[in-house]
């Protein structure tokens, strides 16, 4: 018995030693593999070895620790700090992925204007609009952009002015009803976002979505204040099929770059539910009189835009077009009709391309314009003297509150245009952009291989003191006066990006913002005690404040 026990003990000890050795060799093998992988990563990116690197940096995980556990505000400030710290090129590591970064205007211009830097990186795939010009891959974007450029010509944009006027006047009426005769503090973003959503849907699909059945599904906010609960109809269109917060979170969650892993996350479930809700709503949309017709029985395809009648769209465009090219269109030429009638690469836009482009136009057009108008109103509320100067200009150009707004009148709002530009400088709706090289290139002394990722900060460049002076963080519209712009490169101010792949809707945004601000300022006075240092932005695809956009609003006498 004693011998048997001794034998079993020896066997047990040997088994333990074998298990320990097995774990030792397994760990050693994993460490060796990781070491070899790190060596391969370093060798592969030797071209950037001389560039300063964001600290702290660790092998394999790179700078990931800078993003873990951070609030969206801390994340925005952390990223901004890096762009401010380095003058030219610097590098960061998203795990094993190298990112070249800069906010230098000359380098950014060289990248954005380079013919081999027209590809958008994998970040943009997270938006799930890969068949549209916003996030489409290079070859798809190139043919679509060429086909869609005419849809934003001057005559077509001018035809949208009546839509802008109607929506902005309704918004002001709602704001007046909310503040009453004595005035009070309200969150202005829901009102403005609802207005810009109505504008973009009216000019994109020719429908007033506020009159559609099922809209209650998308009511996002109930704005409360000391005087009680004030319901505000605000669609979460961007949140549902262009989920800014979820996409931004995925951009800094390196393990979610792998689609298979992301599909097992709660974020994926939430994103899918939001998109499904939005798609179901838009499949029920019906046009108003004189707008795009939807033939719900034409085919068995799913989705709103697969059911749009292409032949009727072409007929509407032909009936709207007029022989005299110097004369404006009599009614708006909506984007959906032009998409259905257009061709790219010799073929019509497919149903999925039509759908993605319309969704992208509604999402991006609504959120970016709403944010820009909101930021401009906030800056004006913080600077009452500037606000009054804009108000006087508006009243000079539009003395009659019922007079029609013409494009020639809007051109006279020169000071307002400088105010909008200064707002775009200090708070660009798209604070960061990224590109991926399609070939080996050389920019600013760095030889950059194909498929390299480049991230650029418009927000940081717009506040560089070596470009804009020591008062770069001050709201001063007169810095855009011609005499103060002498010697300043056009490359330092790119609120709508730059180069061939810039924002196609830049002129649309400027036109709609002028109309909206004119309607607000001629009827309402805005006040705020906030200072520029009080504004805390959060990380995302678009630039948003962490806090509500609370402004004291009162009627003008």
TrEMBL record:
Amino acids binding heme: 503
The keyword Electron transport is assigned to this record: no
Listed GO MF terms: heme binding; iron ion binding; monooxygenase activity; oxidoreductase activity, acting on paired donors, with incorporation or reduction of molecular oxygen
Transmembrane segments: 22-42
Alphabetical UniProt keywords: Endoplasmic reticulum, Heme, Iron, Membrane, Metal-binding, Microsome, Monooxygenase, Oxidoreductase, Transmembrane, Transmembrane helix
Major localisation: endoplasmic reticulum
Protein's organism: Anopheles coluzzii (African malaria mosquito)
UniProt protein name: Cytochrome P450
GO CC entries: endoplasmic reticulum membrane
Alphabetical list of InterPro entries matching this protein: Cyt_P450 (IPR001128), Cyt_P450_CS (IPR017972), Cyt_P450_E_grp-I (IPR002401), Cyt_P450_sf (IPR036396), Cytochrome_P450_Monoox (IPR050196)
Gene3D superfamilies, per database record: Cytochrome P450 (1.10.630.10)
Keyword Transmembrane among UniProt keywords: yes
């Amino acid at each position: 018995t004693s011998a048997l026990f001794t034998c079993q003990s020896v066997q047990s000890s040997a088994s333990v030693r074998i298990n320990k050795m097995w774990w030792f060799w397994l760990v050693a093998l994993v460490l060796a593999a990781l070491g070899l992988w790190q060596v391969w990563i370093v060798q592969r990116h030797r071209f950037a070895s001389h560039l300063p690197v964001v600290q702290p940096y660790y092998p394999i995980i790179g700078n990931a620790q800078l993003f873990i556990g951070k609030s969206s505000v801390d994340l925005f400030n952390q990223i901004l700090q890096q762009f401010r710290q380095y003058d030219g090129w610097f590098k960061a590591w998203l795990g094993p992925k190298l990112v070249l970064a800069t906010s230098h205007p000359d380098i950014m211009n060289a990248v954005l204007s380079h013919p081999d830097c027209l590809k958008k990186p994998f970040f943009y795939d997270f938006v799930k609009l890969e068949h549209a010009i916003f996030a489409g891959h290079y070859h798809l974007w190139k043919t679509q952009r060429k086909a869609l450029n005419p849809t934003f010509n001057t005559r077509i944009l001018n035809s949208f002015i009546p839509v802008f006027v109607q929506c902005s006047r309704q918004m002001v009426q709602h704001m007046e009803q909310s503040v009453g005769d004595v005035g009070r503090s309200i969150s202005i973003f829901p009102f403005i976002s609802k207005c810009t959503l109505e504008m973009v849907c009216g000019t994109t699909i020719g429908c007033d979505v506020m009159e559609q059945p099922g809209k209650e599904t998308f009511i996002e906010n109930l704005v409360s204040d000391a005087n009680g609960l004030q319901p505000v109809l605000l669609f979460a269109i961007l949140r549902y099929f262009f989920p800014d917060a979820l996409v931004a979170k995925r951009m800094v969650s390196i393990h979610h770059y792998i689609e298979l892993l992301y599909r097992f996350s709660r974020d994926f479930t939430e994103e899918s539910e939001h998109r499904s809700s939005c798609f179901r709503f838009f499949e029920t949309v019906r046009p108003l009189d004189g707008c795009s017709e939807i033939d719900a029985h034409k085919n068995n395809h799913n989705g709103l835009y697969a059911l749009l009648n292409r032949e009727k769209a072409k007929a509407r465009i032909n009936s709207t077009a007029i022989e005299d090219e110097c004369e404006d269109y009599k009614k708006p030429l909506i984007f959906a009709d032009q998409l259905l009638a257009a061709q790219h690469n010799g073929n019509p836009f497919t149903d999925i391309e039509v759908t993605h482009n319309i969704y992208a136009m509604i999402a991006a057009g609504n959120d970016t314009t709403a944010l820009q108008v909101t930021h401009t109103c906030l800056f004006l509320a913080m600077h009452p003297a500037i606000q009054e100067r804009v108000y006087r200009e508006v009243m000079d150009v539009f003395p009659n509150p019922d007079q029609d707004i013409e494009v020639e009148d809007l051109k006279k709002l020169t000071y307002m245009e400088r105010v909008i530009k200064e707002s775009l400088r200090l708070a660009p709706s798209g604070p960061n952009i990224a590109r991926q090289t399609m070939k080996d290139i050389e920019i600013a002394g760095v030889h950059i291989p194909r498929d390299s990722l480049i991230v650029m900060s418009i927000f940081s460049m717009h506040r560089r003191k070596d470009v804009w002076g020591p008062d770069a963080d001050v709201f001063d519209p007169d810095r855009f006066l011609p005499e103060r712009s002498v010697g300043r490169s056009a490359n330092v101010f790119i609120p709508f990006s730059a180069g061939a792949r810039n924002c196609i809707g830049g002129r649309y945004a400027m036109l709609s913002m002028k109309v909206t601000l004119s309607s607000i300022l001629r009827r309402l006075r805005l006040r705020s005690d906030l200072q520029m240092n009080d504004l805390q932005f959060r990380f995302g695809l678009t630039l948003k404040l962490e806090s509500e956009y609370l402004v004291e609003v009162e009627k003008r006498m």
